[in-house]
Amino acid sequence: MDAKRETFEIRLKNSATEIEALLDALLSPTVLSDEIARPDLLRNAMHYAVLNGGKRLRPFLVVEAATLLGGNRQAALRVGAALECIHCYSLVHDDLPAMDDDDLRRGKPTVHIKFDEATAILAGDSLLTYAFDIIAAPETDLPDRSKTELVLALARAAGLGGMAGGQILDLAAEKHAPDETGIIRLQAMKTGALIRFACEAGAIIAGASSEERQRLRRFGEKIGLAFQLADDILDLTSDTKTMGKATGKDAARGKGTLVALHGMEWAEKQLRQHVEDAEELLHPYGEHAAMLKATARFIADRKS
Amino acid sequence: MDAKRETFEIRLKNSATEIEALLDALLSPTVLSDEIARPDLLRNAMHYAVLNGGKRLRPFLVVEAATLLGGNRQAALRVGAALECIHCYSLVHDDLPAMDDDDLRRGKPTVHIKFDEATAILAGDSLLTYAFDIIAAPETDLPDRSKTELVLALARAAGLGGMAGGQILDLAAEKHAPDETGIIRLQAMKTGALIRFACEAGAIIAGASSEERQRLRRFGEKIGLAFQLADDILDLTSDTKTMGKATGKDAARGKGTLVALHGMEWAEKQLRQHVEDAEELLHPYGEHAAMLKATARFIADRKS
Question: How far apart are CA A81 and CA A86, in angstroms?
Fold first, then answer.
């Protein structure tokens, strides 16, 4: 492992620790809303769903993109925590029996197994709702204008035209395999939208120009494509132990992936191209963008 | 029917028509997000869940409270539509097999019966998400400050400390009947929080003083209590045909209600008291508050 990569991994780990401390505080029994106490069962299920040992890649992107452009780091951490709530809600709902029906997530029982199905549905709903609470709350030190833009961009990334829409296309893909355009659209919505939001959010937090915002957004798009391609490759090459979840599943279910369509060699080449494109977009920032560039490479090279 | 009541009912009906036209437009295929097309199946399920013949009482409260205090009516309609999306998402998820397991809602198949369970979960998720999109969107003509306050108040009314938290308490109540304090808390969260938000939202939209906002909020609390008590009374006295859903169900499941605890006579008296308290809170506005006062009486007197 070279020195740069090591620095990156330490920084990612430290950021994850910081985000997890914040998420833990946001979901602790002592932080009460100003009016009504929080029902413990539901709060515990939300806490379990969120404090699950994830890499916290999305919050890391928010924080790194924001600091690159001179944004407030504390505000970026809170927006990152909000985004992680959305990501984790989607995992809880995707794992439900009516959806992907998964019992394991990162080697641990999924929320509906650990608790029950009703609690899992409500924990997902509450995490989704809480994300907007966290962004709009007075503790998030940003101008109201930025908060409005973040709420709008996050709602669009997560909703019908984004992640949730991507999930319905994914379920449909089990019955009728989509063509290449369909696969790309599905993936851009299901996994790409939140990753793109993470990068764009950094620009919003920093109050960046629309040109810079657009640049970060395109960077997010490129690494989203890389993320998905790496995932599809891993799905074919990894085993259950490394991934902590059932693998080979997408292929087994007959869902089309670009890897299945074009083969492994094409996929590896395409993956490298996405990373190069992403790095190229950050060229104007020179060495300041080293961490974001390292993230792009990490996404492509990750083994789990 | 006296003339005043008739005027109120016409106004409620006209408002419902207006809100439904807006919801229909917001969920039509021609209104596209600026980036990705909306998957039709999911959009159709959301449309079905929302255009379901409800009374649109919550949006009506938003609009009437906003106009009482001089707020922008078009903005109030959009915030009302957002609130209705949240209300309808909660119905879709509450009806799921893992929750209340209802096949009928207002005499029509529930979303998971009409579509399937996965689609119902995602339609609920997407409606919840869309509510924040609608508020934050540029088409909602309000200062960013007001939008931030609306997002925060709505997220708190709908989430862990509000409606979703109330639903988990409601599910728990099936196993262990709560005491009086527990019933009041459950109801304040499950149904009270959104009704209170509707009234408070009107004050936020109008940019009202914190004193006026507090007054509207307390009015919302009172009519929320009246709404729930009327519901519990109806649940015991009405039949399936009038309600368009299974009734006597809460009692049959052994959930405690205040009516079961204190009897019908007490409940009727208490209901009148809540309406009087609500009307009293609007005393400073005199005749201008006639519509909101009529709403309080309508909530108490409704037969379905």
Answer: 9
